[in-house]
Structure formats: C-alpha cells, structure tokens
Amino acid sequence: MASCLLLSARLPAGSLQRSPLGRIILRKCTTNVRRGMRSAPRSKYTDLIQVSNEDAVTTSTARIKAVSAARALDGISTDDLVFFRLSTIVDGVRHKLSEVPPTEPMTETIAHRIRDLVAPLSHYRAALMEIVDESESITQHSYGALNEYVYILGKVVDPWMLKFKEKNAALTEKGKLRMLRSNLETLALKLRSARVEEWPEADTSYIRTRLEKALNAAEERENRIKPVKTTAKQRAELARIAAAEMEDASRHASFVMSLRAHLELLIHLGRPHDAVETFHQYLRVSAADDSHPRVAHVDLFNLVLRIDAQKGDLTSVKQLFCLMEEFKTDPNAPSFAAVLECVGVAKSKSTFNYDQAKTIVSQVLKGMKERQCSDSDVIYKSHSTLEQKKLIAEGIRIANPLYEIPERRPRYGYMPNPLLNGLCKEHKYAGPNFGVLDSAQMKEFSREQFETEMRGHVDIVPIVRLSNAHHPKEGDEKLIKIAEEKLVEAENKWEETLREVFRKEMEALELQVLASRRQRCITILPYLQCLEQDEFVDLMMQEIRRLSEGSETYTPSTRMMNKQLGQFVMNKYMLKRRSNSGVIGKLEELYGKFADNCIDETGVDIPRVAWQKIVAANQSGPNVDKILHSWPSNVLITVGKFLNQIILNNIKIDARMFNTTNKNQKPLLLPAFFKLYRSQGVMMREELKVHPVAAKLYRLGSHHPLRFDAEVVPMVSPPLPWVSNRFGGYLTSTAKIMRLPPGAHQQFAELNRVPAQQLYPTYDSLNQLSANPWIVNEPVLDLAIDIFVCGGDDHLEIPKPPLACPAPPVITSDMTKKEKFKAHVDKIHLKRLKGEMYSLWCDALYKLSIANHFRKRILWFPHNIDFRGRAYPCPPHFNHLGADLTRALLLFAKGQPLGLKGFDWLKIHLVNLTGHKKRDPISGRLNYANDMMGDIMDSAERPLTGKGWWKDSDEPWQTLAACKEVAAAIRCEAGPENHVSHFPIHQDGSCNGLQHYAALGRDPQGAFSVNLGAAERPQDVYSDVAAMVERERVRDAAKGVKIAAALEGMIKRKVIKQTVMTTVYGVTRYGARLQIAKQLKDLDDFPQDMCFAASQYLTQKTFLCLQEMFTGTKLIQDWFTECARLISGVCGQPVEWISPLGLPVIQPYHRGGKKNFGSSVDATGLRINTRNLVDSFERPNTMKQKNAFPPNFIHSLDSTHMMLTSLYCQQAGISFVSVHDCYWTHPCTVDVMNEICRDQFVALHSQPILEDLRDFMVSKYSFPHQDLDDGGTVQGIAKRKLNRTLTEVPEKGSFDLQQVKHSTYFFS
User: Fold this and answer.
1) DSSP state, residue 1271
2) Where is the DNA-directed RNA polymerase N-terminal domain (predicted)?
3) Burial (Cβ within 10 Å: 0-12, 13-18, ≥19) of residue 784
C-alpha cells in the first residue's frame, strides 16, 4: 500500500485510469489520504504507527544491522519520504540510536525497533500478485511504475535492493520486461529468505510463467531490429575502464598480501605493538586517500584481533569490531574465535568486567547467527590449538553457562561419486612398507630425515670431481693444488667481508628507519632481522658457490637469482619459526606413531586416514598443520636483491691468480660477479655473470661436495601423507601440492574453497604413489659409473665431458675472408656445443652421484601434481620419471615371487623395451624372448665384453636391467616362479590421448586404431595414418602432382609419428610442418631442397587423414577450442572445469602484468614495492587458453584414470606406480593391474563427461537473459554465441566401451 501511494503521487490521474496498474492503485488509496499523509506533521504519526504495529508481521532480522540499516535509510530521497511509514522508520531508528551509547551500536533494542517498524508485507504480496495477473496488458508507460513498486518493496525488505531501480532511458521494451521479471523473482526469493511469511515455491514459478508470454512477444518484435555496432572509440573506452578496475583490484590484493606478510613477521619477531601500529597507520592512510590501496581486509583485522585476544584486551577488541563495521569488513570464523578467546583470557583477570563481556559475547553470537557461522565452525575452522578452543568455550559460557565444546568427528570418507563406489570405506590394508624394514630401522631413518630437513641440505660426494669435465687427470696436479689453496684463502676472506658489510648495512638501514620516520611502513628491515647474521652470511656463501659452479655459457637473470635467494631466506625462517613454536617437536612425535603404522602387518588405514586419526587423538600443543603464509614475490625479490647486491659490490677476485710466471706482480682485484644486459625481443634483460677466473677457481679447486636442498633429493623415510593442500610430502620442508607458475593464485583459492572431502581421492592417490619404497639397482649403477668415468658413450646416452669437444679453429692472418668467417662461425658453434655437453655431463653427474649416495638405502619419492592433476615426484634430479638410465637404476624395495605368469611377463616386458616386435601379438613376443635367451644371458653376464645385444634396444639400460633380472630368475634354485623379484613391469597406453578422445566421441574406427577394441594383434595408429597418407599420395601422383611423386617410398611411420602423437596436444599446422620437415631432413635419400614443399604437403594430408579416422575427436577438439576462445574473449575469464574425480582445474594463462612487479625498492632502498602479479586480476591470454584447453582437458582425464587405477590397486593390495600413462607393478600382479586399469577406464568414460562439462560451463560462464544486450551490439551477439556454443555438445558414435575390457593391447 505504501508504494501504491507513492506511485499514485507521481503518475497523472489520466494515466492511472487508463492503465491496469493505475486501476489497481486507485482501488487501494484515495487522494485525500495521500494529501493527509503529506501534510500531517510527523509528531502525529504515533497513533498510526501503533495501529500498524498491532498488525505487523514479525520478520526475521538475522541479516539486519542497526547502523547499516540506518545509513541505507538515511540516503532515501525526499520524494521517497512521501509515504509516512518510511519517514517514521528513519525517525525511529535515529531516535533509538541516540539513546544507545556510541560504543554499543548493535543491541537487541535497536534490532527489535527496526523489526517492529517494518510494514506488514502481507498487504504488498496481495497487490503484487494482482499486478502479475494483469501483466500481459501492461502498457509502455507503466513499466516505470511497476518497477518502482518492486523498488519500494525491496527497500522495505532489504535496503540493498536499491540496485534494482530501473533506468528507463537505457532499456527497450524487451529489456524492461526482463528487468521486471528479474526484479519480481528476486523480490519473491528475498521475501522467502526473510521469512516474513511462507512464500511457496509455486509463487516464484507463477511470476515467471505469467510474464513469459509478454517477454516472448517482445522478443519476437525486437529480433527484427538490425544490429547496432559500437564504435572503436566506445570499445576502447570500455576496455580502458575495465582495465582500470582490474588494476585497482590487483593493487588492493597485492598490498594486502604484502602487509599481511609484514605484520605476521613483526608478530613472530616479538613486536606485536609495532604490528598493531603499522596496521592502524595504513588504515588511516587508506581512509584519507582514495588512491591508496584498501587495507580493510578481514585477514588483516584477524591478525590484530589475535594480538589483542592473547592480551585479553576487551576494549581494543570491541574497537576493532567497530572499525570492521565502519570499513564494511565482514567478520568470519577466525574473527569471532579471536573475540571469544579474548573474553576467555580476560575472564581470568581481576579487572574482568562481566557486563561488558556479556554484551560483547551476545553481539558475537548474534553476528555468528546472521552469517550462518556455527560455534563448531568458529572452534574448528579457525586453526585454534586445544588451549585456544578451551578459551573460546569459556567465552561462550558467558552467555551460555552450560556450553560444552561440540565433538567434531573427522570426516574420512569421500563425497558421493559413482567412480568411487567400489572402494570399501572400512577396508584395512597391510602397511605399505611392511616387510621392507623393521621398527628400529624406521626410527633410525625417521631421525635421519628430520635431521636432514632441519639442516636444509644434503651433501653428496660426486663420483668424479667437476675439474674432470674440463681437464685431464694427468698433468694438472700442480694447477689443481694451487686452486685448492687459493679457494680456501678466498672463501675465508669473502666470509669475513660479507659479515662486516652485512653488519654495516643493517646499521645503516636502522638509521634510515629512524631518520625517515618509516617505523610504521612496510620496509625490508624486519625481513633482514628474522635470521641471525651468520645465517645470512652462510646463505650468501652458498649463493657464491652456486653461481661459480654453474655453466659458463648460461647466465641467469638477476630477477630469478634474487627471488631464489629470497626463497632460501624465507624457507630458513619458516623452519626456524615452526621449530621455535614447538611444531617440529610435536610433528616428530606424531610422525613416530605414523611410521609404526607404515610397517604394521595387521590391518591399517590408508595413510591419510591414519594421520588424521593420530592428529585427532593428540590435540594438545601446537597445530602441526597451521597455515604459514609464504612471502609474496615482491618481498622475496627485494630481500634477495639486497643480499646479492652485497655480493656484487664486495666480493673481489684476483684476475692474475693463475699467472704463475711473475710471482711479484700485484693482485688485480676485480668483481667476482658482474651484471650484463642481453636483448630479449624489444626488452633488455639484466643477467648475472661470474668472472672466468672465479669459475676456473671453483672448477679446479673445489673440494665441496655437491650440495642439494633437502626437498630436491629422495627421502629416507616415508613421506607425510597429504591431508590438505598445504600439508604433506616432506616432514618439515615446505612443499606445495600443486605446481603453479608465479602469480597463479586462483587455483589455490579454488582448492581452499571446495570441501576438503572433494579432494580426498586426489590426496589418497598421491599418498599411494608416495608410499611406494624404492632401492637402487646396484649392478646397473656400477656399470653406468664405469662408463661415465671412462669418458661416456653417446650410443648409450652417457654424455661425454666437455673436454671431448674438438678445439676451436685458430684464425690466422694468411686466411681468406671467407675462411675467417667460416672459422668464426665454427668457433661459435663449438662454444655452444661445449656448453651443451657440460650441461648434459653435469646432469648425468648429479643423477649418478645421487644414486651412488643412496645405494643400499631405501628411498621414497613424495609426489605432487600440476594444475591438471598429473602426478610428479617432487625430487627433480633422480626419480622414475627420468630417462632410460634413471629408470633402469630403480627397483621396488618390496619384492614379490614371480609366480606362474610373472616370469612370462618379465620376458614380454624385456621384448617391449627393445622395440623389435611392436606389431607382434603377446605370444609372438614371448616366443621371441625364448628364442633370444642366449643373447639375453650373454648381455646379463658380459654387458661390455659380450655380443652387446642389449645396446641395440630402444631403451638399452632398461633392457640390460631386464636381462639381468631374467638371468637371476633362471639361476634361482627353486625355479623362476619362486624368484623374489623387485623389478617393475610397465604397461603403456597406446597413444593414450587419442584413446581418451576416441572414448569421448565413441569413434569406432579411431577406437580400433588405438586398441580400445579387442584384436588378435596390436594396432599401430601411426602406421595406419601413414598408410592412409600413402593412399592419398598415390592418388595425387597419378594426377600428376610433382611433390606427391617425389615422396614415393618416403612416407614412413617415423615421418608422421610425432605429428599424430601431438595432435591430441593441439599442435598447429605450422608446428606439424616443422616436425615433419625435421624427419625428412634425416632421410639420406630424400632431396633436401624439397623439404619445405614436402612437409607442407604431408602436413595437409596427415591432418585430413586424422580427421577421417577420428571424426568425433575432431568435433570434440573443435568444440573445446571454440568454448575456450569465447570464454576467455567474451567473459574475460580463464577456462575452468572440475575433473571427474573432483579436482578443480583453472588454466593459468594470462597476459601478464608489468614486468617489474616487486623488482625494486624505493630510492632509499628501504621500502618494499608492494605490487605483485596476481592472476585473478589479469586478462586471460585468449590464444593460449583456446590452444591449451583441449590437451589440458585430456590430461585431466588421463590423470583421473591413473588416480582411479591407483586407488583400486591400493585396495587390491598390489604395488602401483605411474609415469603418466605408463603403469608399473610387480610381474606377478600385472594381470590384476590390467583388469583394474581397463575397468576404471570404462567406468570413467561411462560417465557423462562432456555433458557434465557443458553443465558446468553453462552455469559458470553463460549470460542470463536479463544481461544479454538487446540492441544487437557486437557484445550482445558474442554473448548469445557463447550461450549457444556452450550447449552444443558434439554427438557421439557407436563404439561400445565394454570392448575395452577385452582388449589385450589397450595397455600393454
């Protein structure tokens, strides 16, 4: 009724009588009543208010705050105050606020007053439904009145409904109808949520149905309107505004990250007062300066609240909550936990004010109720210790004396997922390391791993000295001795220099802070106080060795080196912080119990559940999984730059050090490191270069062992299980569950958002892979070391040292100009070749040295994933994902008897490694192995002096290892079937990416080509495509095409193999042409001058044949590409999806921000640049998004298949390891793994994968009808195309997935 009065005052009487809406209004009010309400003084409204209160419906005020409501009502215009009830509400709220002390703005009195002053909405509902009934005959001039009606209703229900006020001038007839429908639906939903009265679901449908006819009619009329193009200037202006908004948001997010890290550091350094003052300083600045990044973030408030909570300062806590309300910062569970903890601490003090505490607790409990935040959330989601939980409970007891902490039983199971239904919830397993080592060994290895990680590095003796890479062993003993003496002398001097310079720099910084009055700013000083001086000196000395022992041809960028050194400082600080807080001690205690679980022979839980139960049973003391935020990139770079600058300015080297001819010459001291600038496109890149004399000094004189960080070498005890996205892997070293590029925050934010149970399958699969113990294959290692020490072997892929590189030609004066030019080119080529040889030689040295260090030891490889869900071992240098030699060096630590079929699988695997019988059936390969048994035994017994049959294999080192295993089985006295084998057998997917595409599209021909269907012999898709290309070539040659005739006999499998393989990964025609051209150049009998034309021709034919063979695959790939293009281009968002196992995936490809983010400090070198690259506020790179989506989605499917196989193999009690689409197990369990692998592939692709993807993208990216452009603009057309494309799922073929279960060569 109120809005009817307002509307009738604004509309002419004639309009009211002519329109259905006007007739409704006239039925509900009279002019006299309206005039009386306008003219009557407000003091006479009291009687009317009392009458209305008697009929008022008691509404829920759970979402209304007194101050916010007063502010919202205070902004109502004079015209809106025509209706006396709204003006009375304002007066009543102001009156009540004047009665309440300023420190208590939120009381039950005010809340009840607002509730009682709200008009009875039952009257409005009746009028609303009448208007909807007559909506079909609404005339053009009535749209504004109708929306105004909704607008007033929205004001009464919720002040934030002001945004629904219509802007009539900007909308067409169809747009007005759409806004009308949206407003009415939103209002109905808000009435339901406010629980003013029961608003049945049918009413919402009723409104939508009654307006649908009018909307459709308007659409039919306006679809005939010609598209209106926006000008380039308009589009540029819109883009500029959007970019400015994203820039502002990015500045805000970056500043919050920097300030949070700074405040946390101050608190840990024992300076909480400085942290509080710094926060308030920035809060005042941001309030006074609109251009300053906003500081009012709940995480920052929570840090300060926690400081006051520990002191029990109720007054400060109350003031902070008032500030949060003033700055419109919504509190969360940690906020409420801090306040309640403060009350609990204050309760034990003699100055405790019970009334004040009760008021605060009541307000907190009310705020929790408004935000649907339960007491359980406050206690358990705030990462509180057991002692803090008890204090929170004490705070709640102020209002509820009988309160007890609710028991929260951890949820160990998965969220509902049909793919996981076959996993038994209560299934028990034998410990993954049972039988591998005993309890005493486990305790010893655990202690050793803790010591290693606390030390932060592992020193490994190299199998040869680095000097052997460049100088022969004979004739250089004198030079090496001189270098050793000089190096010891130089390092001692450098260490003293660094210590003295660092001390002076710190004194200068402290003076700058005092002189510049920047005690309350984000400066570098606290980051240089978080460690002891000697620790910084040690880190700088390690950096010197790292730079000096690197490649002479590779020069890292200063930005990269600064960030790396800053990362080392942060890691050391984080470890020290966890140790000082008692986390490491408790972690060691809990890990001891977990380690016992790993070797238990009785039924035990899977690693994640076992760890969760251990933590739940030991809640006293610090939280071992407490989140420690990493320093932002700008901080890491600034800290690293400060330390590297000390090195650059103060570390000198005698350039005449090795000039022994003149012993009396003065030293020529030059910087040991210097900067150079290298052009990189249109930019100049700053790089760090080591002085040649310093590089030579370390190359010849270094006795230092190879030093590796603890997190890049294998573990000697079982890894911690992943139980969250921030806890797992190494024991104390920081490890992330997901590998992401710098600035990629969206993915981690999404991982934090989804329920923990949704990620449990991913965690459990990684834990299963990580729990598998390994040992080193010592016979193969000894042979590889012998060959490496003796100079390497290119055929066996053991790199030769750089000294094997030919000497560069000498340029003499008698050479011609052409000869000099050729000699100069050869010299550059040889220098590059020497650098490549040194890199490969060092890589092999690292691998072999690590393997030699861990011989006779048991190893574990903790795993993590990339953003698509693909699993990788964390140690980068030595793991089973490596090349042929590295894989040959690893065996399962747990042995299993070969059994009846195990010996056959071992021989079949050996033949698979050779690559000799790829098209033969399994029986043929087994017969071949038996026929070649003499050569196999010869290779095992005399690998270097015998026939060398193993050397001609595709994978020679793995073949040799298999030969030795076959020989050991044959020599077993109890028979081959009783031989205990540690050897892993591989089952590799047949072009696995195309297998997933063929299963998605149900392509019969494509599925058969990639072995999804049963066949007597393995199908080779590469040979099939080559045959199809040859068929096309013959046709073209018959028509007289010259290039087709020239390619006769040249279309071989290897020519097109790489192109076929990378098709699934989105290779372009340009990239495919380069691949084919490279293969053609390797053919000796093909004319090289025709490579370009031939590669173009074969690229075209290969793509046509693939499209013919994989019809559904091409349609799906095109749909993926088009969806990604529109999502990134029209929506301006990265492509996102959820894997069938529940892992959220976001493509981290963005255009990038400014290149100098975080790379500098201010002119004084004191303040830190607070800018970071945050992908959430960067425009996506459309080209990369669309090209990467097809392969990335397929990768997420193959990772899902691998994880499912891993989980079900774990349940079956068999060993399982994967190298993406290559699965490993013991010889005796190959059949079991094969059955599980096929069953899970069928189960995976039996799900509506494409349909689920469509539904997800439609719900996330499609535009609702009311947001579509009605004028036919470019944006409107693009939005409609996006909505249409997202729903156009390609049709599927007729292939029966059940055939996969009977396919022998699906994985083989």
Assistant:
1) S
2) 447-771
3) buried
Mapped to the 3 state alphabet, what secondary structure does 540-603 carry?
HHHHHHHHHCCCCCCCCEHHHHHHHHHHHHHHHHHHHHHHHCCHHHHHHHHHHHHHHHHCCCCC
Looking at the DSSP bridge assignments, the partners of residue 708 are 458
The one-character DSSP state at 733 is: S
From 1221, 1269, 1270, 1279, active-site residue: 1221
CB 599 within 8 A of CB 431: yes
Q: Pick the catalytic residue from 1057, 1114, 1186, 1279.
A: 1057
Strand partners, 860: 715
Give the max Cα distance, the chain. 118
Q: For residue 1080, what are its two tokens?
A: 């053609």
Q: Give the end-to-end CA distance of the chain in Å, rounded to a whole number.
A: 77
Q: Enter the DSSP assignment of 349.
A: S
Residues with Cβ within 8 Å of 176's Cβ and at least 6 positions away in sequence, in order, are 143, 147, 166, 168
Closest CA to 1055 of 1033, 1089, 1022: 1022
Q: Which residues lie below 8 Å from residue 1240, measured CB to CB, with a gap of 6+?
A: 419, 1201, 1204, 1205, 1208
List Cα–Cα distances, 413 to 58, 426, 432, 863, in angstroms: 42, 9, 20, 22
Question: HSE on the CB side for 1249, CA within 13 Å?
Answer: 26
| Torsional sign, CA 421, 424, 425, 430 | negative
Q: Is 814 a catalytic residue?
A: no
Q: What count of other Cβ atoms lies within 10 Å of the Cβ of residue 165?
A: 17
Count CB atoms within 10 A of the CB of residue 661.
Answer: 6
Q: Residue 157 has what pLDDT?
A: 42
pLDDT single digits (tens) 267-300: 999 898 989 888 888 888 888 887 778 888 888 9
| Average pLDDT value for residue range 440-457 | 90
Backbone φ and ψ for 653, nearest 5 degrees, come out as: -135, 140
Does 1003 participate in catalysis according to the annotation? Answer: no
Q: How far apart are CA 263 and CA 277, in angstroms?
A: 10
As a dihedral over the C-alpha atoms of residue 197, residue 203, residue 205, residue 210, rounded to 10 degrees, the angle is -140
Comparing 37-46, 727-736, 808-817, 1195-1204, which segment has the lowest mean pLDDT?
37-46
The owner of tokens 């066996």 is 796
Model confidence at 1073, pLDDT cuts 50, 70, 90, reads confident
How far is 362 from 367, CA to CA, in rounded Å? 9
What per-residue confidence (pLDDT) applies to 9? Answer: 34
Q: What does the pLDDT average to over 549-553?
A: 71
Long-range CB contacts (within 8 A, 24+) of 10-16: 10/79, 10/145, 10/148, 11/145, 15/141, 15/142
Judge whether 931 and 892 are in contact, CB under 8 Å.
Answer: no
Measured CA to CA, the distance from residue 460 to residue 483 in angstroms comes to: 21
Give the range among 76-85, 672-681, 943-952 with minimum mean pLDDT.
76-85
Given 793, 988, 1036, 1231, the catalytic residue = 988
Q: Measured between alpha carbons, how far is 593 from 596 in angstroms, rounded to an integer?
A: 5
Q: Residue 135: name the closest of 185, 169, 171, 195 by CA.
A: 185
Reduced to 3 states, what is the DSSP secondary structure of residue 457? strand
- Please state, rounded to an integer, the average pLDDT across all residues of the chain: 78
pLDDT confidence bin for 431, thresholds 50/70/90: low
Look at residues 1215, 1219, 1214, 718 and name the one whose alpha carbon lies nearest to residue 958. 1219
In the chain, the amino acid numbered 1091 is C
Residue 887, pLDDT above cutoff 90: yes
Is residue 1296 part of the annotated active site? The answer reads: no
Round to whole Å and give the CA distance between 781 and 784.
5
The pLDDT of residue 836: 85
- Whole-model pTM? 0.79
Indicate the residue type of 597.
Answer: N
